[in-house]
Design goal:
The chain is globular and about 55 Å long. It has a 7-stranded mixed sheet, with helices on both faces. It has a 4-stranded mixed sheet with strand order 1-11-8-7. Strands 9-10 form a two-stranded antiparallel ribbon. By secondary structure, the chain is an alpha/beta fold. α6 links the parallel β3 and β4. The model has no long low-confidence stretch (mean pLDDT 96). Bound molecules: N,N-dimethyl-L-histidine. N,N-dimethyl-L-histidine binds next to α9 and β11.
């Protein structure tokens, strides 16, 4: 099973490992353990985004649901544990909820729990890589609310984010819209603390990508010989996460190998932070004609509804 992997994915992984600088797409964080570690991150005191977004949703729920109005289907992108959608299911009561995530085993068990609490709503767990073009032909006649919480949009580059928004705006066919959460630029210490927690959960989350790759491509990364490194790149407004080799590492996989020198890094994630104005502009440029935004008192995080006039 370990080596049964579509060759396109295999090539993508090997291509990243052999590139200069080397990289691993953040989508490879999310096997079952990775998804669980990410859930643990969201409980950390240092990792404010989940908590602050929840607060914004709670404090502004009636205005948010008023802006969304009635929709037939909620499609959540990167649904994870399916917990964030609950307030929307309570207030909007859609006929259908589609949860998309790359880690489908984790998703299926989360969705089963959710369905127990909302038996009247038709629910589907869909394995999807949202870095690829999305298409919803079955929902063409439905009014869709795309829900993309958690600032996962920060893991796309700004041009990729624009591309995803244009894709979603097209799939809306002039109705419904997108409810999205995004992390805002702020004091560098707050940002760097959020990605360097004292318990080392983020480090484990980052290192788990190597464990996942060993499983996917049959590589032999020795996890204890790598370390977590995260910092805020101020010129690009992004947290960067890397894995740094503690000593020379010859890593092999069926059909190839690569020597990583001591100190060499594999870039695993970017987490872009936006200003309110820039983010709203990107949504407008993607084809949404009406954007409403809510933030917390410290302006740490932004929730936007992008719809149509
Ligand atoms: C999923 N995503 C929004 C998280 C982030 O903050 O970029 C992933 C993460 N990486 C480290 N901590 C959390």
């Amino acid at each position: 099973m370990a080596l049964v992997i579509k060759s396109k994915l295999f090539q993508e992984i090997i291509g990243g490992l052999q590139a200069n600088p080397a990289s691993i797409s953040p989508k490879f964080f999310y096997d079952e353990l990775g998804s669980t570690l990410f859930q643990a991150i969201t409980h950390l005191e240092e990792y404010y985004p989940t908590r602050v977004e929840r607060g914004i949703m709670q404090s502004n729920l009636s205005q948010i649901t008023q802006a969304i109005a009635l929709v037939d289907v909620i499609v959540e992108l990167g649904a994870g544990n399916c917990e964030k959608v609950r307030p929307l299911l309570d207030t909007i009561s859609p006929k259908q909820y589609q949860a998309l995530d790359i880690s489908v085993e984790f998703l299926e068990s989360a969705l089963a729990d959710l369905h127990d609490d909302y038996p009247a709503i038709d629910m589907q767990a869909i394995a999807a890589d949202i870095t690829q073009e999305l298409s919803f032909p079955d929902l063409q006649d439905q009014k869709i609310l795309f829900f993309y919480p958690g600032s996962s949009i920060g893991n796309f580059t700004p041009p990729e984010a624009s591309c995803l928004f244009s894709n979603l705006a097209r799939e809306c066919h002039g109705r419904g819209g997108l409810l999205i959460g995004v992390d805002l630029v702020k004091d560098i210490h707050i940002l760097e603390r959020a990605y360097n927690d004292t318990l080392g959960v983020t480090a484990a989350f980052n290192l788990n990508a190597l464990r996942h790759l060993n499983h996917l491509i049959g590589s032999n990364f020795s996890i204890s010989d790598w370390e977590h490194y995260a910092f805020f790149n101020q010129s690009l407004n992004r947290i960067e996460m890397h894995l740094r080799a503690k000593s020379d590492q010859l890593v092999s996989w069926p059909g190839g190998c690569h020597l990583f020198r001591a100190g060499e890094m594999i870039h695993t994630e970017n987490s872009y932070k936006y200003s309110k104005a820039t983010f709203q502009k990107i949504l407008h440029e993607a084809g949404f004609t009406q954007v409403t935004a809510w933030t917390d008192p410290e302006s740490n995080f932004l929730v936007c509804f992008a719809g149509f006039k």
